Amino acid sequence: MKPADFCYHRPREVDEAVQLLHELDDAKVMAGGQSLLPIMNMRLAEPAHVVDITAVAALRACDTDSSCARYGATTTHMMFEDELVPDVTDGLLGRAAAGIGYRAIRTRGTVGGSLAHSDSSAEWPTVLSALDAVVHVVSVRGARRIPVRELLLGFFSTALEPDELIVAVDVPRLGPDTRCGLYKLARKPGEFAESLAVALARPAGTELWLGAARATPTRLIHAESLLTGGGLPELPDLADAVLADTGVGGHPGQLHAVAVHRALRATEGTPDA
Ligand SMILES: Cc1cc2nc3c(=O)[nH]c(=O)nc-3n(C[C@H](O)[C@H](O)[C@H](O)COP(=O)(O)OP(=O)(O)OC[C@H]3O[C@@H](n4cnc5c(N)ncnc54)[C@H](O)[C@@H]3O)c2cc1C
Asked: For residue 38, which atom of ligand 1 is closest to its CA?
C-alpha cells in the first residue's frame, strides 16, 4: 500500500523544524522513516504534514566530555555500529546497534526516532534506560531534559508533546570498573527481540534491565536480589524472579530468564551460546 497524501517539509535548522511543528496542524516528524513510513503505508497513520529532519546538520552532531557523550537525535544505528561516533560505554552501544534489524534499516534508522517510537522490543529504549540516558527536547516553548526512563510511557507512547522534537541524547560515560552484558533473543537475525536483557555489573552491584516483556523496559529488582551471593543464579530461580518483576511466566518467562542469564554471563566474559 501507499501512504495517503501529505505535504512534505525539509527544514535545515532546528528552529525551523520546531516552528513548523508548532504551526502545522497534524504534522509528524520523520527521521529515518524506518518505523513511520511502514505505518503510513499501512494507513495506520495519515498525517497531513511530514517534517523530514534529516537535513538538519545540528541533529547529527556528536560531542563528548568527561562525564557523557551527547549524540544528535538523527545519529543512525549504523554510525554506532561502525564506530563513526565515539562509544562511551565500552562497546555496548555498538553491539546494541549492530543487532537492530537489517543493515539497510540501520543506515537510515536513528536513535532519536527509536526512542520517540517507544517499542519496548527495540534495542535503544532498553539499553538507554539501563544506561540512564537523558534526551534533550525542544519546542517553541523552550527546551527540557527528560530521562529516558521517564520518556517512555508505554507501547508507542511517550512523554513528548506533539510539537516537541528530540534533539539529542546524553549517555553517561561508563567507568572502567563497569562490565556490560547484552543479550537479544529473536527468532532470526533482523527481527525485533522476543527478549532483550542488559546487565551492568559494577563493584557496588549488578543492575538488570529487560525489554520486550512489558510495555516499557523493566528493571529486574527481584532478579538482582539473586545476585548477592556471588555466582550465577539457576534458570528456574531467574524465571521465578522475572515473573515477580514483569508478571510474565510460562514459556515467554523462561525465554526472558535465558536472556538475562546470558547477559549476566557476558559480563563475566563468558561466551553467550
Ligand atoms: C523490518 C524492520 C525491522 C526492524 N527491526 C528492528 C530491531 O530489531 N530493533 C530495533 O530496535 N528496531 C528495529 N526496527 C525499527 C528501526 O530501528 C527504526 O529505525 C526505529 O524504529 C526508528 O526509526 P526512524 O529513526 O527511522 O524514525 P521514524 O520512522 O522516522 O520515526 C519514528 C517515530 O518517531 C518520531 N520521531 C522520529 N524522530 C523524532 C525526533 N527527533 N523527535 C521527535 N519525534 C521523532 C516520528 O514522528 C515517528 O512517530 C525495524 C524496522 C523495520 C522496518
From this structure: 53
Residue 273 has pLDDT above 50, yes or no: no
Q: Whose CA is nearest to atom 17 of ligand 1?
A: 109
Q: In the predicted model, is pLDDT for residue 92 greater than 90?
A: yes
For 64-84, b/e burial (b = at least 16 CB within 10 A) is eeeebbbbbbbbbbbbbbeee
- Higher pLDDT, residue 268 or 29: 29
The mean pLDDT value for 246-253 works out to: 98
- The pocket around ligand 1, CB under 6 angstroms, is made up of 28-36, 38, 53, 73, 100-101, 105, 108-110, 112-114, 116-117, 122-123, 160, 165-166, 191-192
Substitution candidate for ligand 1 out of 34, 123, 128 with most atoms within 8 A of CB: 34
Q: Which domains occur in the chain, in start order? A: 7-52 (3.30.43.10), 58-172 (3.30.465.10), 180-267 (3.30.390.50)
What beta strand segments (E) does the chain contain? 7-9, 27-30, 49-52, 62-64, 68-72, 134-139, 142-147, 152-154, 157-158, 165-172, 179-185, 195-202, 205-211, 218-219
* Percent of the chain whose predicted confidence (pLDDT) is above 70: 99
pLDDT interval class at 229 (50, 70, 90): confident
Å from CA of 117 to ligand 1 middle: 6
In which residue are the cell numbers 527468532 written? 187
pTM of the full structure: 0.97
